[in-house]
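User: Can you recover a sequence for this backbone? Please restate the input before giving your answer.

Assistant: Of course. Working from this structure:
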């Protein structure tokens, strides 16, 4: 049996990947520093701080995982774009990768970000769009991606890098777009929005997690966009939520300005994901928002 180590396993994406990995036949070990660990049959939990390099090395040397799925990172909304915590996570990720390889690891998949791309181009292709991140978060993710790719070439391990675009769904941080709109409307408060004309690619978090497990289980190498390939205006997402809650009158478009750094268009080329990995989304936006809203009712 293939032995998989998942980091960030209680995080937004990580927790949704556990069952998918078990269904793919992996013997799953999950790392977390949280005290609350969801009870999922077949998942072995490890309470481990990845910044404790000695403890991490010892535990991975004992488990000797054949596969690694690395989600753990600093992700506090409003702070992670510029936080120096990003640099610490580059270091921890490199330590993890080296110990994984030294312990006999065969394939590693890391979570990257659309923030690695030059957003002036709008449409992001792994092989064409320049990598010119304009935040510390994006720079750190992009730098780590280059190192992981080169390390794989030098050591012979297999690796891939999933670039995440926009996602939503159960357990999302309350300050992010979808839960903040839901919470405001359910509380009878106005949902203050920008003009909402920005075009994005939204994907349900379960699809994101499933895509990562499919990528892990494939032979694809290097960067692969993790996205739906379906463009949608932010305005449409907000209106769908408001309509489902019968609170269209509480939505106020144009009430807040659009940050200068926010591009009008940010979409993903998903040909590698669809053709090389052989994966496509199961959740459409309407179904995904209904399920997400239902968790708040």
């Amino acid at each position: 049996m293939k032995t998989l180590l998942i980091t960030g396993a209680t995080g937004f994406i990580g927790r949704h990947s556990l069952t998918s990995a078990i269904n793919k036949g992996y013997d799953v070990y999950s790392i977390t520093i949280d005290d609350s660990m969801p009870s999922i049959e077949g998942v072995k939990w490890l309470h481990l701080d990845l910044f404790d390099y000695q403890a991490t090395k010892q535990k991975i040397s004992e488990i000797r995982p054949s596969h690694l799925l690395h989600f753990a990172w600093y992700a506090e909304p409003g702070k992670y774009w510029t936080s120096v915590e990003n640099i610490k996570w580059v270091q921890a990720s490199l330590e993890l990768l080296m110990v994984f390889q030294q312990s006999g690891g065969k394939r590693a998949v890391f979570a990257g970000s659309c923030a690695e791309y030059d957003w002036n181009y709008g449409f992001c292709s792994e092989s064409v769009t320049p990598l010119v991140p304009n935040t510390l978060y994006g720079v750190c993710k992009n730098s780590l991606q280059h190192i992981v790719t080169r390390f794989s070439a030098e050591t012979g391990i297999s690796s891939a890098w999933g670039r995440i675009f926009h996602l939503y769904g159960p357990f999302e941080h309350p300050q992010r777009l979808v839960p903040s709109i839901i919470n405001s409307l359910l509380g009878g408060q106005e949902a203050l929005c920008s003009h909402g004309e920005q075009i994005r690619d939204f994907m349900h978090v379960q699809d994101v997690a499933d895509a990562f497990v499919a990528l892990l289980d494939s032979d694809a190498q290097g960067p692969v966009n993790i996205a739906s390939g379906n463009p949608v205006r932010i305005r449409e997402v907000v209106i769908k939520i408001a309509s489902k809650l019968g609170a269209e009158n509480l939505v106020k478009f144009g009430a807040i300005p659009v940050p200068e750094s926010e591009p009008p268009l940010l979409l993903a080329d998903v040909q590698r994901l669809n053709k090389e990995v052989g994966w496509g989304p199961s959740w459409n936006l309407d179904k995904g928002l209904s399920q997400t809203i239902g968790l708040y009712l």
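That completes the design. Residues 8 and 14 are 6 Å apart (CA to CA).
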